[in-house]
Amino acid sequence: MLKFKSLFNKQCSVIAMIHVDALPGTPLFSGSVDNIVKKACKEAEIYLSNRVDGILVENMHDVPYVQSKYFEPEVTASMTRICTELRKIIPKYIPFGLQVLAGGNKEALSIAKVCSMNFIRAEGFVFRFTDADAGLLLRYRKKIEAEDVLVFTDIKKKHSSHAITSDVSLIETAKAAEFFLSDGIILTGTSTGNPADVEELQGLKGNINLPVLIGSGVTYENLENYLSADALIVGSHFKRDGKWNNEVDEERIRNFMNKINKQQFY
Fold first, then answer.
1. Which residue in 11, 99, 190, 262 is deepest, having the highest Cβ count within 10 Å?
2. Buried (b) or exposed (e) across 138-150, using 16+ Cβ within 10 A?
3. Could you say which protein family the record assigns here (predicted)?
4. What's the gap between Cα 102 and its chain centre?
């Protein structure tokens, strides 16, 4: 918790999502990396002007996703280029992180290390069907001397089938993540933009000593339900019409930040 609070010192922080456009080698790539970088930087500037507490970059437009073992070098190279340019405009006092889909946790750590970033969002840290990677990932973090990069881990992640681990409860999964040295856990709804279960949030807060982040579905309207979380990752709600693949909507960001800043103590 101390490491988390060294980055996020508010009662409930807001981490805004930048969904970078499709990268080279993926079906929706537009043909211009420069345009991808410009758009990401523009979104970062909008977020910063509205005083979000952190920024998280993700390659969500790279649909359909492939597992990290099938990545080609351009994925890591492109995300490194984007994050390098974003780091130039994001002040060092604003926590800055990334996620590399799907399951590119090692790639994310390497990018975070060379781009002086603060955290990553990791999938499959514990209880993945084939190869949960907590041990390998944290050994790699030690190897490249990136221990100042925090690892926030999804549990019972959205879009995933949990039939294989249905006998393992959410709290048991969270406790496993804590035991395996996660720096924070992320609770989501069943799909992108769907709200997380409020009762599950309260159960986690009462049973583990890790920071709990909400990873999907927070809106202006339901914000009050999630103020007990340590941070809110907001993507879809900050886009036009609340759809993740639309343009950033500055009015929605401004209204949300005004509301949360009025409702919490620092």
1. 99
2. bebbeeeebeebb
3. Belongs to the BtpA family.
4. 13
What are the C-alpha distances in Å from 99 to residues 154, 157, 197, 204? 11, 14, 23, 23
Determine the Cα–Cα distance for residues 33 and 75; give it in Å rounded to an integer.
12
**β-strand partners of 122:** 153
Report pLDDT for 226: 96
Ranges in the chain, pLDDT < 70: 127-132, 156-168, 191-193, 264-266
Q: Which residue has the tokens 């009662």?
A: 11
CA nearest to 139, candidates 184, 183, 109:
109
Q: Measuring CA to CA, which residue among 246, 220, 181 is closest to residue 17?
A: 246
Q: Tens digits of per-residue pLDDT, 3-59?
A: 899 999 999 999 999 999 999 999 999 999 999 999 999 999 999 999 999 999 999
| Predicted TM-score (pTM) of this structure | 0.91
Provide the β-strand partners of residue 119: 97, 150
- What does the pLDDT read at residue 141? 96
**Count of alpha carbons within 13 angstroms of residue 155, beta-carbon side:** 30
- Among candidates 182, 236, 234, which has minimal Cα distance to 204? 182
Which domains, ranges and CATH numbers included, belong to the chain? 2-263 (3.20.20.70)
Record the tokens describing residue 20, joined without a space: 């970078």
Closest CA to 171 of 138, 144, 218, 203: 203
